[in-house]
Design a protein that fits this description.
Layout lengths: L15 H13 L6 H14 L5 E4 L2 H11 L7 E5 L5 H8 L3 E5 L10 H6 L5 E4 L11 H11 L2 E5 L7 E2 L2 E2 L6 E5 L12 E5 L1 H10 L21 H31 L12 E2 L5 E4 L4 H12 L24 H9 E4 L7 H16 L3
Parallel strand pairs: 2-3, 2-4, 4-5, 5-8
Antiparallel strand pairs: 1-9, 6-7, 6-10, 8-9, 11-12
Helix pairs in contact: 1-8, 2-8, 3-4, 3-7, 9-11
The protein binds pyridoxal-5'-phosphate.
Pyridoxal-5'-phosphate (PLP) binds next to helix 3 and helix 4.
């Protein structure tokens, strides 16, 4: 049997407009952070975080790192994060000198469970940093209530959630800062990059920290880094920002199709009032998950991903012996299926047929 062409689990969409934008910047002769970055910050703020100030940096990880530093997180502090996420979430906390403390997830949303967060709060806890995983907003109301009870700050890892919202309020507007990643596989890209939504003193500090600690040249106020975004990357990001609304609608439409036609796997649930932007369309498999991944790829030419097979607390970099049952269960069961905007209706049908066939065979 010949396998049909592979359907990838993610596909960055780069077109003529992105190429023209890069060319425009290259021809200007000015490539480092400049007017394109300033325009991108302004446009991103208006399009995605209801006008809240935005500061562009060279990666999502840098955005988390600088946001945490700007909010005053450092040695002696504990920041509660999920273990079921990409390593950048906890890495950025650890790199400030603070300690990431892992809490469990709510099995429905795959995001931090407020009750589990409350159970790990100590006298050293300074903040809670949920991840809006897969593009679904974390339980911001529940987490804000825990933060309020214990006098903690709230930060948002919105790396995967451009345009997600809860009750009409955009992610990236709930915490002292929010971070959006612009890595190529995210819902929009600048090549590499990150955007931090914040305001007032936090915004001022993120701007300082990304540029050696200076606002005016050679007048360094604090010790900082070079985490600037280039105008080349910003020019790509500006084009992508304009394309994002249509892509998000297509992701949601693709997800609705999968919801309606998949059998034998547990499809995603959207909390009441939540806007899910389907960075990933993640199902649970009640059987041999790894065998399903392999069968989808080898027998049906359907790419899929496992986000994430190893919880952060069990990575060699943290190596903690913790009891996080929902995190462990999700890490064993999840599989993310193609949902990206370049899927054709034939592709979607192939995904459905493949998953249903493999699930029926008892993966
Ligand atoms: C992608 C991602 C990051 C890091 O973003 P980069 O731009 O790759 O540095 C952080 N947290 C989560 C949840 C992510 O998915």
């Amino acid at each position: 049997m010949t396998t049909p062409p592979m359907i990838p689990v993610a596909k960055p969409l780069i077109g003529d407009d992105e190429r023209a934008a890069v060319d425009r910047v290259l021809r200007s002769g000015m490539m480092a952070q400049g007017p394109e970055v300033a325009a991108f910050e302004q446009e991103f703020a208006e399009a995605l975080v209801q006008g809240r100030e935005c500061v562009a940096v060279n990666s999502g990880t840098s955005g988390l790192h600088l946001g945490l530093l700007a909010a005053g997180i450092g040695p002696g502090d504990e920041v509660v994060v999920p273990s079921f996420t990409f390593a950048a979430t906890a890495n950025s906390v650890a790199l400030t000198g603070a300690t990431p403390v892992f809490a469990d997830i709510d099995p429905v949303s795959f995001c931090l469970d407020p009750a589990s967060v409350e159970a790990v709060v100590t006298g050293r806890t300074a903040a809670i940093m949920p991840v809006h995983l897969y593009g679904h907003p974390a339980d911001v109301a529940g987490l804000a209530a825990v933060a309020e009870r214990h006098g903690l700050a709230l930060f948002e890892d919105a790396a995967q959630a451009h345009g997600a919202a809860q009750d009409g309020r955009a992610v990236g507007t709930f915490g002292a800062f929010g971070m959006f990643s612009l890595y190529p596989t995210k819902n929009m890209t600048s090549g590499e990059g990150g955007m931090v939504s914040c305001d007032g003193e936090v915004a001022r500090k993120v701007r300082l920290l990304r540029n050696q600690g200076m606002a005016a040249q050679y007048q360094n106020e604090v010790v900082g880094l070079n985490n600037r975004m280039t105008d080349i990357h910003a020019a790509i990001g500006r084009v992508q920002l304009g394309r994002l609304p249509a892509w998000t609608t297509t992701r949601q439409r693709n997800a609705a199709y999968l919801d309606a036609h998949l059998e034998g796997v547990a499809t995603p649930t959207v909390r009441a009032g939540a806007t899910h932007v389907y960075h990933q369309y993640t199902v649970r498999v009640d059987g041999d998950r790894d065998r399903m991944v392999q069968a989808l790829r080898e027998e049906h030419g359907v790419g899929s991903g496992v986000y994430y097979p190893v919880p952060n607390h069990r990575l060699a970099s943290f190596a903690l012996d913790l009891d996080l049952p929902e995190t462990e269960k999700a890490a064993r069961e999840v599989i993310s299926l193609p949902v990206h905007p370049s899927l054709t209706s034939d592709d979607l049908d192939r995904v459905v047929q493949a998953v249903n066939t493999v699930a029926r065979a008892g993966a």
